[in-house]
Amino acid sequence: MATTSDSVVQTVGLTKIFRDFWMREKVTAVSDLNLNIAPREVFGLLGPNGSGKSTTLKMILGLLFPTKGRITIFGKVPTNVAVKARIGFLPEESNLYNFLDARETLDFYGRLFHIPRAQRIKRIDMLLEMVGLKGAAYRRVGEYSKGMQRRIGLAQALINDPDLLILDEPTSGLDPIGTRQFKDLIRTLVHRGKSIILSSHLLGDVEDVCDNVCILYGGKLQTQGKIDELLSRKELTQITTDKLDDATLATIRQTLEKAGRELVEVGSPHDKLENLFLRIVEDAQRHHLATGGALGGAGVAEFLTRDGAQPEGAAVIESLVAKPEKKTEQPEPISPQPEQVEPKTQVLQELLTKPQQDAAPPTPTNKPTAKPTVKPSQTQADRSVIDDLLGNDKESGE
Amino acid sequence: MKNIFAVARHTFSQCIRMKIAVAFILLLAGCLIALPYVMTGDGTLAGNIRTFLSYSVSITGILLSIVTVLVTVSVVAGDISQKHIYLIIAKPLGRWEYLVGRWLGVVVLNALLLAIAAGSIFLFSQYLREKQARNYTDRRIIETEIFTARQEQSPIIPNYKQIAADQKEIFRKRGLLNSFLEAYESQRGLTREKAEEMFDKDLEQQVKEGLSSARPGGALFWMFKGLPVIGEKTRGAGIVESVDVEEARRRLIGISVPVWLGGRLVPRGPVTINGVDGVVARLEKGRFLAVFNPGNMQRGEIANLKDGDKVEIQADPTIQLRYKVSAGNGAKSLKRTIEFYSATEGQVPAGGGKSMLVPKLRIKQLPGEGPTGTMTTVTIAAPEELSNGNLIVRYVNKPPVSSVSIRSKNVSLLYRVGGFTGNFIRAVILVFCQLVFLSALGVFMGSFLSFPVGVLSCSVLLASGWIIDWLSDALGIGKSSFGELDFTSQMGVVVSYVVKVIMPNFTEMSPSDKLVDGLNIPWRNVGSAVLWSIVIRTTFYLTVGCLIFRKRELARVQV
Ligand SMILES: Nc1ncnc2c1ncn2[C@@H]1O[C@H](COP(=O)(O)OP(=O)(O)OP(=O)(O)O)[C@@H](O)[C@H]1O
Ligand SMILES: [Mg+2]
């Protein structure tokens, strides 16, 4: 086994079983987890709801104690106080004191790190600037929107310039600009030699920033490794160019056909982590692995599809489906054309009846990626929206 | 330390933002404003001041206790239930530092609120003190029985058992005992043993009653031993208002004095003006009349005084006798003479009695009339002869009315040992000790219980702390041995014992009674409150709280 000295966080056989009042076992939230997070690494914890991501992070911080196994963090146990000076933590919900304003919040946490007054004030100013809340600095945090609270939560985690940043779903609630800035921040921090552990459901973000990921299901490690290696599919070749028009595509298709190859997919590489994720989770579900968390979900609840509700339900789905495609073309109102409704619902039903299909998503939102047809992916759609918002800055994640 | 202060600061501002301070001040103000309407005083200013002091000090203590418990439990339990603790634990501060910081913050808040409340109470009581008293007695009570700090000393309680035993011996010698016992046996159908037990009890009771009652013309006396050489002379300044010479007989000088100084003077008592001995005649609020006899009136220090001159006043210390008398025929008021004697060591009897020889050296004689059924106070200038610390007080029941009885426990001698301000400060410190303790209790409860359960537990303990003394009295605890009690009372004993261990003695620490009666709260009491309530109990609860907190999984959901 690797020595602990050169890893920032190491867990060995980490297990957490939640028991009830009578000490009966209720749920195994984390089971025999071995992680090793190296310095300068961005480590992503992935997994469906209730797979044990937050539980793992809480154990790393000493908020929960492992049932079995061992954790070291900078070579120390999680309850060690001194070690906390090198950590920044953003919990799942921001958990801020409602009665403080942004400045006071940062000041309070800054004091706990014994940052001298002058430096504290300077850092608070810079952090508020960074998270874009300078204008709202004197408003009570309790009045903030979720995203604003998230931003202060992030600022609070950075006040001590931590060597290890532990972030539980950092981008949830953040707007696209915020997300983008967050990713830039992560890159900067890593460049300066910091380590980062984050859990997230936004696979695009994870893929953009993480070096290593692990995917949990039911508290068990399903797969772990360098993101490039996990995602590289040796049997495929991917060509990335400027956007192609249909004519050019047709030409390429012809060329490939001549060479006896088939054009499998055109699109950004960023949907691949999603595919990997879905594959692993579905595998796990197919093998009926135990989980105390959420299962895949079984389509739309029956009552939502009945008689009167049907057109409405269908419209909701339709709007969800249609949105990404529309956005790439022209910003039209979401209300769908009647003739489009039929085919889409059919596709959905098809998907729902064949859950084992390779890319079948657990929720309707993922539908556009389902068919291996020539179609811009959802992620790409999002990206161009972001780019629109950011102006003409076309530089992508890599 | 820095961490503790940071958390304490945070706690303090949290409480301020939660408007606790405002709510408390409003509540207190509300209670005090309502006070005049519920006040059922006797119409005297002294009565009003007493009611005000007693209510306001108790209400402050009760309100602050409740606030303290609510706040401490809610900040700690709230941090856990609302997950604020996630962020705190991720910072480099020990869990104990967090708890101690929370405690300290509430203590500081308490100090502030208590200072505000106590300051207002003090100022308002001084305002009341300045108001016009109803009459001279009213004023004297205000000055010498409220705005003062007096030490109370009980007389030597006679050894009733011994006296009864002696009496029994006499009966035996006269051959009467046997017939008494036989009468007991036959009349009540008892065994010899039981009869004797009963007889002894009755005899003791009879002795006790006999020694505390006097027929018309008879007298009761009490012996006080080891009185300290009482008090320093009070010095102050006054302004001459009028000079009046009644020929060569006497000189009357009207002098205006500060209220506090006037209160130290005793009518017909000695006073020294510019070093010349005189006697206090008429005493009113803020002014009195000093009378000088012909021998002294010629002395230059006073002979040349004019209106507006400043004079130096020196007043002798006073002692007071407090007693409660009940009349056999239910009379409202009785004629009596109270006599004070200095006693030498040899004259000090083992117990009290009626038959003691009257000591030679009579210091003072106060003829007059006094009410029955209530505590009555008489004030005299402390005699110099008291320097050996022994004093005998005789109560002569003047005929023709009825027999009187005064129990030894209802008699005490009081002498001034300090001022009101100092006493008030000590009283406030006692209240503060309670609050410091309650903060620790609340933090302790919050460290492992949810808010409602924690508050409930604290309230139960608080209430039991308040009533435990009364309760153990009611249950008769300590009067009979444990084995003789029935099961419920045994449970009561166990519970009261437990409460006495885990809670400080709130009754002992509640200062309003003493304050109202102008009784000194000695620093020794304050010291023992600090020791038991703060040093020992607070440390204990905080330590246990910290140990529990350390072992707790703070991210566990608590329902
Ligand atoms: N305090 C607790 N008591 C009992 N069970 C818990 C507790 N905390 C978490 N669990 C259970 O442990 C499992 C893992 O929960 P956890 O919060 O780690 O999931 P997660 O991966 O963070 O999910 P999400 O994506 O929804 O945030 C779940 O089944 C959850 O019900
Ligand atoms: Mg989570």
Low-confidence stretches of chain A: 321-398
Helix coverage percent of chain A: 25-40%
Class based on secondary structure composition and strand pairing of chain B: alpha+beta
Computed Rg of chain A? 23 Å
- The succession of helices and strands of chain A, N to C, reads EEEHEEHHHEHEHEEHHHHHHH
Largest beta sheet of chain A: what is the strand line-up? 5-6-7-3-8-9
Largest sheet of chain A, if any? Answer: 6 strands, mixed
Determine the N-to-C terminus distance of chain A.
33 Å
**Helicity of chain B, in percent?**
40-55%
Q: How far is the first residue's CA from the last residue's CA of chain B? A: 33 Å
The backbone outline of chain B, from C-alpha atoms, is flat
Q: Average pLDDT value of chain B?
A: 84
| Individual helix count of chain B | 18
Largest sheet of chain B: 6 strands, antiparallel, barrel
Q: Tell me the domain tally of chain B.
A: 3
User: What strand order characterises the main sheet of chain B?
Assistant: 4-5-8-7-6-9
Key traits:
heterodimer, A: 398 residues, alpha/beta, three-stranded antiparallel sheet, 9 strands, globular, disordered C terminus, B: 559 residues, alpha+beta, Elongation Factor Tu (Ef-tu), domain 3, four-stranded antiparallel sheet, flat, binds adenosine-5'-triphosphate, binds magnesium ion
Q: Your description of this structure?
A:
The complex is a heterodimer of chains A (about 400) and B (about 550). With about 400 residues, chain A is an alpha/beta fold. In chain A, about 40% of the residues lie in helices and about 15% in strands. A 6-stranded mixed β-sheet of chain A has the order 5-6-7-3-8-9, with helices on both faces. About 0% of the residues of chain B have low confidence. Chain B folds into 3 domains: about 260 residues, no CATH class; about 110 residues, no CATH class; about 70 residues, Elongation Factor Tu (Ef-tu), domain 3, CATH 2.40.30.20. The interface between A and B is medium-sized, with 30 and 28 residues. The site of magnesium ion has 4 residues of chain A, from helix 1.
